[in-house]
Design brief:
Elements lengths: L10 H13 L3 E2 L27 E6 L8 E3 L2 E8 L2 E8 L5 E8 L18 E2 L3 E6 L3 E6 L4 E6 L14 E3 L2 E6 L6 E6 L5 E6 L11 E5 L2 E8 L2 E6 L5 E5 L11 E3 L2 E6 L14 H8 L7 E2 H4 L23 H4 L6 E2 L1 H12 L6 E6 L8 E6 L10 E3 L2 E6 L3 E6 L5 E6 L11 E3 L2 E5 L4 E6 L6 E6 L9 E3 L2 E5 L3 E5 L4
Antiparallel strand pairs: 1-3, 2-35, 3-4, 4-5, 5-6, 7-8, 8-9, 9-10, 11-12, 12-13, 13-14, 15-16, 16-17, 17-18, 19-20, 20-23, 21-22, 23-24, 25-26, 26-27, 27-28, 29-30, 30-31, 31-32, 33-34, 34-35
């Protein structure tokens, strides 16, 4: 079902909008902005202090969703969901008014994690059409007036935690990575028609949530995609594999970042992360839960446990209560969990042999295969992508932990806390010599870029934030659970 609600702006706003397009060298037309790098390209000063009452240009209520704002010219595109509808919205960048809203209906919902969303993928645009992806439906292309150009239904995804990878524009193609538990593919799609140009079978890669990015290496445009255990590089022209590096995370989420001849990815491993809260000894569980003193745990006793494996400072999100493992561990199905059966979970976790590190990869050349140039193993985020800015790599993770490293050598400039507690899912972005770090609790911390941790402001919006902010033309666009904000000067 398609619906469109037109908006008729005044003559003044039309003139203002055309001025934006005419001036419009700045854009944020995909997840993490130009090239997926997370860096604003303009020279206008970005605001430091802002909240619901300070430096707010407008606030537009939105349906729930985790997609980030896609900004081009006078338009902002974002997605949302309500019951069985998935909607695409076009918002006027000057006023915050909704220009049009289109919705499609899905027959059934995909399975998704409690922190994921049916509207997780960020739209992308080439300036002629906006492209959106909903895992339970497929890809849709609208023109800037909201008319449907084409749609492409896709197989219903069997993804462990729900789809989240965003489509991107790369060269002449729309690129979509769809890593699921069966039928994983990387597609290059004709932007005008929605037809497949080339498709790479990634059947060996299971569920993933990483958005690809593109860079030029040895004169060839390459697509970089993080999958289960591997970072892979594909020739953009035809999808052929150029090189790959093993030993990385089994839950790929982040977007790779390329700079200074290297490719940077984070690989999170809950087993070896120094910030994770690991499995307790079985005797500690007995002290906590074994009410009847049998030396084993019944299903009812196990249900009283809140977590046996946790992400630090994540407000309990993503915790692993013992009850979710009970059926897996109770091998003899007698309804009692013994110390021997508990060892199965210990063995499972010990089997996580991938790196817990920020990994700097040196791509393959004619003489050498791809290799790891250096790696750093502290403060490794699970969801936020690394940020390269002015020769440095920045990492942001739960609890306001921030790490800054020299991009060329991996030397540590600083490790510290920004002051924002709780989980962090949004990726850090930068511009105007500043870093913007959004925590899920709704606090956006502004840091001065440099070799020292310097907090310029801590801005509490009082609304949950999952989406990565967009930085365009001196404005900070923030999507919360409830609304889209524009912060900055009203001029």
């Amino acid at each position: 079902m398609n619906s469109s609600i037109p908006f008729a702006p005044s003559l003044f706003l039309i003139v203002a909008s055309f001025a934006l397009v005419g001036a419009g060298e700045e854009e944020w037309s995909q997840f993490r902005g130009p090239g997926g790098r997370g860096i604003a390209t303009g020279s206008k000063p970005l605001p430091v202090e802002f909240d619901a009452d300070t430096n707010v240009v407008w606030r537009t209520p939105l349906a729930p969703g985790n997609s980030s704002p896609c900004v081009y010219g006078d338009r902002i595109f974002v997605t949302g969901h309500a019951e069985n509808e998935r909607e695409t919205l076009c918002i006027d960048r000057v006023t915050g008014e909704v220009i049009w809203r289109n919705a499609i209906t899905v027959d059934r919902d995909e399975r998704f994690h409690q922190v994921n969303s049916p509207a997780a993928a960020t739209p992308t645009t080439d300036g002629e059409r906006v492209y959106v992806y909903f895992g339970a439906y497929g890809v849709l292309a609208y023109d800037f007036d909201g008319e449907l150009a084409w749609e492409r239904e896709m197989p219903f995804p069997n993804n462990t935690f729900g789809t989240a990878a965003s489509p991107i524009i790369a060269g002449d193609y729309l690129i979509l990575a769809s890593d699921t538990n069966n039928g994983s593919v990387l597609d290059a799609i004709e932007r005008e028609t929605g037809e497949t140009v080339w498709s790479v079978d990634r059947e060996s890669f299971k569920s993933g949530w990483s958005t690809p990015t593109v860079w030029s290496h040895d004169g060839i445009d390459e697509l970089l995609l993080l999958g289960v255990w591997w970072l892979s590089s594909y020739n953009l022209d035809d999808g052929t594999l150029r090189w790959s590096v093993p030993g990385l995370t089994d839950e790929p989420i982040v977007t790779p970042v390329a700079a200074e001849g290297l490719v940077f990815v984070t690989s999170y491993n809950m087993k070896t992360s120094t910030e994770a809260i690991g499995l307790p000894p079985f005797e500690d569980l007995l002290v906590e839960l074994d009410v009847d003193g049998t030396g084993s745990l019944s299903r009812d006793e196990a249900s009283k446990n809140e977590s046996v494996l946790s992400r630090a400072d994540a407000d309990g999100e993503g915790d692993h209560p013992l009850s979710i493992f009970f059926g897996f561990l109770d091998e003899d199905k007698n309804g009692e969990l013994t110390e021997t059966e508990w060892g199965k979970l210990v063995g499972w976790l010990n089997g996580f042999e991938h790196a817990n590190a920020l990994v700097a990869v040196r791509p393959a050349s004619d003489e050498e295969p791809a290799s790891v140039a250096w790696q750093h193993s502290r403060g490794i985020p699970e969801c936020p992508s690394p940020l390269y800015y002015d020769g440095r790599i920045y990492l942001a993770k739960n609890g306001g932990m921030v790490t800054c490293l020299d991009a060329g050598t991996g030397a540590v400039h600083f490790e510290g806390r920004s002051g924002a507690r709780g989980p962090t899912y949004a990726s850090p972005v930068a511009g105007d010599g500043k870093l913007y770090l959004a925590s899920a609790r709704g606090v956006i911390t502004v840091l001065a870029a440099g070799d020292e941790l310097k907090v310029l402001a801590s801005n509490d919006l009082g609304e949950r934030i999952m989406a990565t902010p967009a930085l365009v033309d001196g404005k900070v666009y923030v999507r919360t659970d409830d609304a889209l904000y524009a912060f900055g000067s009203a001029e």
